[in-house]
Amino acid sequence: MSDLPDTDAVLVAGVDSSTQSTKVVVCDARTGQLVRTGRAAHPDATEVDPEVWWRALDTATAGGLLDGVRALGVAGQQHGMVTLDEHGHVVRPALLWNDTRSAPAAADLTAELGGPAAWADAVGSVPVASFTVTKLRWMAEHEPELADRVARVVLPHDWLTWRLLGGTGAPTTDRGDASGTGYFAPATGEYRTDLLARAFGGRTPDVPAVLDPAEPAGHTGDGVLVSAGTGDNMAAALALGAEAGDVVVSLGTSGTVFGTSPHPARDPSGLVAGFADATGRFLPLACTLNAARVLTATAAMLGVELAELDRLALAAPAGAEGLTLLPYLDGERTPNLPDATGTLTGLRRAAMTPENLARAAVEGMLCGLAAGLEAVARHGLEPRRVLLIGGAARAESVRAAAPVVFGVPVAVPEPAEHVAIGAARQAAWALSGAAEPPEWSARSLRELPEPTAGDAAEGERIRQRHAEARGRMHG
Ligand SMILES: Nc1ncnc2c1ncn2[C@@H]1O[C@H](COP(=O)(O)OP(=O)(O)O)[C@@H](O)[C@H]1O
Ligand SMILES: O=C(CO)[C@@H](O)[C@H](O)COP(=O)(O)O
């Protein structure tokens, strides 16, 4: 990286402020080599005071984690609605991407504009409850006095970036995260403030200026450069630098399927969101509400720890002897069934073992993402290989089932904190002033055994059973 100062240790940091935790990595700016890490937990809620993220960042970086760091970038959970008054104070707790109370607002907004295709044309995505624009409509309808106090609306990463810069001046954002609001058009790079005003009862709060991918947001009081930051999925894409044919599947709180594309996506079915990425391109993405926590919930139901659930799932045959878990435990977003609950079908006396239930949980989680893979394949991506990341990708049972359920080769990039690493890479890019992000050393990639012909047939049967269960739910 020739544009960086020629000294031994130029350090950059990346922050991943996601649903369940804050993770921080410190990397060598030239190579990307990991130097140190920190983390802190978030509460289990869909409505959170942003101060909680600030305190988690403080905890995660305690003990001098950021000593010597020259630049820092923040990647955050997408879509969260952070409302600020004219003094910069938070008006109400942030409503997060997985809060489904705005589902009726999403349906109303969709109808008002003339249907899903009109939204896909306008902003690349059909709004569901996750999108910020629907949360603003909910607030306008249910909390009009609070809505009247809103002077600005920003996203979680925008707010954290602004706080790092002292909490004065105007907040900024990037096109990746802005593309998840529902009032920003990724294809043109412009806000649709008309849609924001329509959603918010005619109110027109300020929105953050959209920085270029390598444009700094500013410097902290200690002179640390703060990069534009982005959404967590955009940061993971930047970390992985996925090649054509690689599609990323992330198994965090959300399950996401995405890849980089030179063209904006526009899916009137709403299965694929036409996001922008963090490099100036696009990031077609399908997102489920139920991923890693399907496994924690199943482990709790069985009265075991995650490690035991993993062992049980590995001990069961592929297909779980017909046990089918449709894991809509927190409602679902893709497909758009915000009020759905989970179902367990295919119960036979001989099949009702802890092993099969554990395997059914793993397969149920993965089937939601397999449907996402099919959807992104119809909208500009070509899944020849899956790169599997996120907390649940650590489980051996998930690694065993993924090639079967997806029916394509799967590789697991190590180490695991790709969102934070992507944010650090963006910081290094902004620090370098170069035209392209720094070439960081390739990370080790564990290629999982390729699916056999038998696996392919079993995978087809598993996906079919889940599709039938989904069909029964749609009525
Ligand atoms: N070995 C494991 N097996 C299964 N799930 C795991 C394992 N390690 C972590 N997880 C799960 O991964 C989730 C956290 O993943 P992460 O990608 O950090 O999520 P997020 O970014 O949404 O906060 C948690 O629900 C946790 O229980
Ligand atoms: O809503 C989406 C993507 O559109 C989610 O992917 C959020 O960005 C939260 O991510 P995690 O906390 O699960 O990483």
TrEMBL record:
<keyword id="KW-0808">Transferase</keyword>
<dbReference type="GO" id="GO:0042732">
    <property type="term" value="P:D-xylose metabolic process"/>
</dbReference>
<protein>
    <recommendedName>
        <fullName>Xylulose kinase</fullName>
        <ecNumber>2.7.1.17</ecNumber>
    </recommendedName>
</protein>
<feature type="domain" description="Carbohydrate kinase FGGY N-terminal">
    <location>
        <begin position="12"/>
        <end position="238"/>
    </location>
</feature>
<keyword id="KW-0547">Nucleotide-binding</keyword>
<feature type="site" description="Important for activity">
    <location>
        <position position="16"/>
    </location>
</feature>
<dbReference type="InterPro" id="IPR018485">
    <property type="entry name" value="FGGY_C"/>
</dbReference>
<keyword id="KW-0067">ATP-binding</keyword>
<feature type="compositionally biased region" description="Basic and acidic residues">
    <location>
        <begin position="458"/>
        <end position="475"/>
    </location>
</feature>
<feature type="binding site">
    <location>
        <begin position="78"/>
        <end position="79"/>
    </location>
    <ligand>
        <name>substrate</name>
    </ligand>
</feature>
<feature type="domain" description="Carbohydrate kinase FGGY C-terminal">
    <location>
        <begin position="248"/>
        <end position="431"/>
    </location>
</feature>
<feature type="active site" description="Proton acceptor">
    <location>
        <position position="232"/>
    </location>
</feature>
<keyword id="KW-0859">Xylose metabolism</keyword>
<dbReference type="GO" id="GO:0004856">
    <property type="term" value="F:D-xylulokinase activity"/>
</dbReference>
<dbReference type="GO" id="GO:0005524">
    <property type="term" value="F:ATP binding"/>
</dbReference>
<dbReference type="InterPro" id="IPR018483">
    <property type="entry name" value="Carb_kinase_FGGY_CS"/>
</dbReference>
<keyword id="KW-0418">Kinase</keyword>
<dbReference type="GO" id="GO:0005998">
    <property type="term" value="P:xylulose catabolic process"/>
</dbReference>
<dbReference type="InterPro" id="IPR000577">
    <property type="entry name" value="Carb_kinase_FGGY"/>
</dbReference>
<dbReference type="InterPro" id="IPR018484">
    <property type="entry name" value="FGGY_N"/>
</dbReference>
<comment type="function">
    <text>Catalyzes the phosphorylation of D-xylulose to D-xylulose 5-phosphate.</text>
</comment>
<dbReference type="InterPro" id="IPR006000">
    <property type="entry name" value="Xylulokinase"/>
</dbReference>
<dbReference type="InterPro" id="IPR043129">
    <property type="entry name" value="ATPase_NBD"/>
</dbReference>
<dbReference type="Pfam" id="PF02782">
    <property type="entry name" value="FGGY_C"/>
</dbReference>
<dbReference type="InterPro" id="IPR050406">
    <property type="entry name" value="FGGY_Carb_Kinase"/>
</dbReference>
<dbReference type="Pfam" id="PF00370">
    <property type="entry name" value="FGGY_N"/>
</dbReference>
<feature type="region of interest" description="Disordered">
    <location>
        <begin position="440"/>
        <end position="475"/>
    </location>
</feature>
<keyword id="KW-0119">Carbohydrate metabolism</keyword>
<comment type="similarity">
    <text>Belongs to the FGGY kinase family.</text>
</comment>
